[in-house]
Amino acid sequence: MSSTQSLPKVRTLMLTLSVFIMTACDISQLNNPYPEADHGQSILYSSFAERPKHLDPAVAYSSDEYGFICQIYEPPLQYHYLKRPYQLQPLTAAEMPEVRYLDKQGNALAETASDTEVAFSEYLISIKPGIEFQPHPAFSQSEPGRYLYHALSKEQLAAIDTLADLPVQQSRSLTAEDYVYQIKRLAYAKIQSPIAELMAGYIDGFSEFTRQTAAVDIADLKNQNLRGVEAVNEHAYRIRIKGKYPQFEYWLAMPFFAPMPWEADAFYDQPGLKNKNITLDWFPIGTGPFWLKENNPNRRMVLAKNPHYHADFYPTDGDPGDKEAGLLNDAGKLLPFVDKVVYTLEKETIPYWAKFLQGYYDASGIASDSFDQAVQFSGSGDPLLTPMMRDKQIQLHTSVATSIFYMGFNMLDPVLGGAGEASRKLRQAIAIAVDYEEFIAIFANGRGLAAQGALPPGIFGYRDGAAGINPVVYDWLNGKPQRKAIEKARQLLAEAGYPNGIDPKTGQALLLYFDTTATGSDDKALMNWYRKQFEKLGIQLVIRGTDYNRFQEKMRTGAAQIFVWGWNADYPDPENFFFLLYGPNSKVGQGGENAGNYANPEFDRLFEKMRNMDNGPERQIIIDRMQDILRRDAPWLFGYYPKDFALLHSWYQNLKPARMINNRLKYSRVDTDLREQKRQEWNQAEFWPLLLGFVLLAVAFLPAVKAYRRRQQETQS
Amino acid sequence: MMSYVIRRILYALPLLLAVNVLTFVLFFVVNSPDDMARMQLGQKRVTEQAIQNWKHQHGYDLPLLWNAEQTGGKQLSETIFYQKSINLFLFDFGLSDSGRNIGSDIRQRMWPSLALALPSLIVGLSVNITLALLVVLFRNTYVELGSSVLLVMLMSVSSLFYIIGGQFLIGKLLKLVPISGYDDGWAAIKFLILPVIISVVAGIGSGVRWYRSLFLEEVERDYVRTARAKGLSETQVLFKHVLKNAMIPILTGVVVVLPLLFMGSLIMESFFSIPGLGSYTIDAINRQDFSIVRAMVFLGSVLYIAGLLLTDISYTLVDPRVRLS
């Protein structure tokens, strides 16, 4: 009886399931993480793994922070988007700065004046008229001079959670004073700009200004006079530099020198806003192509097109090959191309990669976990996309970064350091033995170029081909550098006084110490590899794993012996790499960036000469000499220049990889129709495995249910 | 009961102080104020002067626990410990070392944590209890044997496997829900389905075994035999009588974790990019932000103590024989 009653139920259930399955077949993008309202909009989707620490351009100094603020703030100069080597060009400046040299009395000198004659360099920067800041409550006035929100009452503060809660948002024109004010902020001790001490060495009056404003409230900062920086008129300002410092123009392309309206500090300095995490460090005020519409660093950050953005156009010329690559398709068009950029917090690489493959991120780097899925190498060693990536029409862009990872020796160490012949030969032997080509293949998935010197490609002074190899470590064979045989390293080691790696003092294998923060289980393979490289020479390498803090302390005190370090260029000039080896910059004693404490009087003298020179044959000769000195002294194993691999979906256009160019989002274009089509195609939900699972479960339980019912019936009867 | 509650709160004060001292000592054994400054200032062009400035501005230029240069009460109060800890007892968490208001961050981030933890708890509890009762119902059959083997297997699998496997299967292969992310309001539901399912599945092995053992103890009791003798079906016996009488140990386990739901799940939040307090704590530890670490440890201690207190109180509600005095 019960079985006949349950038949209609079963039929209804089957019918419902059929309808569900048929409906489900049409469902796509159930996994879409974005709101329905985003559909069809010109939005670029990206992610961030860690919230930026600072968005104040006076403080921010890391690449993840620049990813945001360089779209918002505009320094006077920028790099040409397409041309390599990097070329500076005006951004908000009307033209490149006018530079004139002065003697101690302030008299103008000829351009050809020698370094010793030049007491000051003056940079006159004229800015384009008509540039407006983004709308912001800091500018809002009820009448001229009466700011609506500079003194918020308790009642007003209670009603505010975000800046959007302040209804009146006005703008104003950019003036030269805004640039001057930002330089004052760099010097203001309470802001703690990381380049304050560096600039104190260059900008006239900078240190005095820091002392003079130590007790001054930030609200009064604009009224303080900074001797070396002044607004000449509404659209021009002048910066006076001590001596000659040609690299200063590169600094003018960094957000440190972007304009800051005084109203920003007057507004954000209110304690009530700070308590609500509404600060200049989190809510920028800029003139750039985008403004930070939503800042929830715990979840999502959204850049929206600045409605007041000035006329700015896509470049009309580039490098050979750019036109063929489609990078000039938008030549001369008004920027920016996308309306919004949505950054979503994505802490783990696995979901990030999966979302990229589903089309929910427009571009991606390649984590080592997913490298094999994305890239394979051809017989000639060129990176190629895997068939899966090609099926999805994903594009691969590679470029050598203006960075270097090197293995450094502490030159104060009694065994490895010093300028003596024995220690030099020991370092040279190690340089040959540690096979960085193998390192790149195993640990960097081929994403690197073995370094031949301190300068990576793209930096003036870098030499390609036979002229650019490190003759201590490589020979030029068959049109490419070939690492010298290990026998050569052993010979050098013997000449250094360690035949077969035996330390004559102990009669045992020479013991060397490698200090590292790589202490995780994932790092074991790498550490074993380092050991094996030294074992080739019979040297025993002791790994001293330590936490980051202790490692830093060892470096500061000169207690480390061998270490691995890296450097990302601030600007594309050889000075920004060679200063890492300049004696007066040593880490021990000076606290500088010369981590290995290398000091060579000839190198230092050449560095002092080279740093103030314009690029040209004479500078190249000096750079070549400096490279030769470094290759001979071997204070570093030059390691490798990392290669950036970027994957772009077919709908992402106009991306030319370049680490130096941080304001590149304005050039990016997205084909939203194509993206929508691909997303639909790639994200059809699959229900049948779930249903199958349920059926299997039911089948497994059915005998037990029957047995239970039988037992119940028996008990009741 | 009120006097009991007040007494427990007073007992909690020295406990919280001790937790605070311990956190402080452990943190500063590993990190010096100089290390913290370096971490905050970044790696490029950090000078000694910049470090001193940072310490001064953030109040880390004082001695740690005892200021020998001061006299009287200032020897204690002019220290990093006093300056950073005393306001905690007023639930004023102050600013993080990166300058954000911690209280505001906590208020914002506890809701996503709760949005994940509460459904996980409720659904997990319901599923575990139901499955445990079913296993007991089918005791002495192949279902019980198979279930026991399966439960041990489920217990043995790492929670990371559930997360990655779940994301791969449901998010990537079946494409039924977003793999990770979060949104405000009701839009958060589609992001919570997967982590909740994974939390529940990951907890089935241990949960069901625990409840099964509770129920097995109960089914042998006299009142169960009486209920059966009255002619009640086995399902009625289990779901009405056994479940009700097993509530005390269930409550003990559940009530104590209720306040801690606000603290979030460290791994889940990180893998699913849920902006809760679990990932907030992990990030703070990674960034050596002492202000956040001490605030979160303090809050965790307070909530744990509150959980224990609530457990005691809940005993009186489910078992009238228990009196708090």
UniProtKB/TrEMBL annotation, chain B:
The keyword Cell membrane applies. It is found in: Cell membrane. Its main location: membrane. The chain crosses the membrane at residues 9-30, 114-137, 149-171, 191-211, 248-272, 292-318. Keywords: Cell membrane, Membrane, Transmembrane, Transmembrane helix, Transport. The keyword Electron transport does not apply. InterPro entries: BPD_transp_1_N (IPR045621), MetI-like (IPR000515), MetI-like_sf (IPR035906). Residues 110-314 form the ABC transmembrane type-1 domain. It is a multi-pass membrane protein. Belongs to the binding-protein-dependent transport system permease family. PANTHER family: INNER MEMBRANE ABC TRANSPORTER, OLIGOPEPTIDE TRANSPORT SYSTEM PERMEASE PROTEIN APPB. This is ABC transporter permease. The lineage of its organism: Bacteria, Pseudomonadati, Pseudomonadota, Gammaproteobacteria, Methylococcales.
